[in-house]
């Protein structure tokens, strides 16, 4: 397997990217447009080169912000976005739609918002269970042929779906949640990625803030925060999960790094084909996360972390959200 940096522009680019979603979507109170633009430009200045956005985020606002902030640096960036899941303005709700004509339209609209003539990586954000994956990927392949996208990605799909997709067109990357407390990719998709030469992009590598150790009380989350609907963050489960986190916090202190940096360093130790994309709206946290690129963990530390947080209370998604994804599940006894 080639190093994951083959996704980026040069081998010197950092192996930690920036998930842009929560600048204006899903977590806490969104930044103002001016604050978001400033944060994105600061991220570039401090060294981020891989930026990940989507049509869904902020109902297209996220792409507009990324485009406005980073267009002057486009030839220095690895830019990724996603299609197939968007907010329908008439229905006023999220819609998953993998029809070829929809994916093409969303791609062309994304290019306008992002102020570019191509995307380095374009993901099918969710599998549309009504549309064969071969049809969706076939259309993305035609976008590759036309130069509108450089590589095809899939998000939150199973190993079997990945293999079916790869039979239609090579898949550059698979993106799913992976962290110390979310080991689902270890069931099958990591092995399938390595079999096919597909890079693995890990979102929520700091456990949606949990692994940072600073969220002590979920009642402090603002209304509308996506974590309030996730079983792991429930008032019943979260205190028990916090107790399990104490060993990680103690180890981070022993190693003189932050818990978030330790979580990212562990993830990078799992293979050079794994690229974490932590998301944050905080410039200080962006700096903290990027600095984890320089942390190399000793094998014995990795082994200790491997055994931490496997036992977690609660699924990572609500029942409704679990119906939207195609990934393998870790048995409850092993979470």
Automatic annotation (TrEMBL):
SUPFAM superfamilies: NAD(P)-linked oxidoreductase. GO terms for cellular component: cytoplasm. Keywords: Oxidoreductase. Pfam families: Aldo_ket_red. It comes from the Bacteria. GO terms for molecular function: oxidoreductase activity. Residues 16-308 form the NADP-dependent oxidoreductase domain. This is NADP-dependent oxidoreductase domain-containing protein. It comes from Halomonas huangheensis.
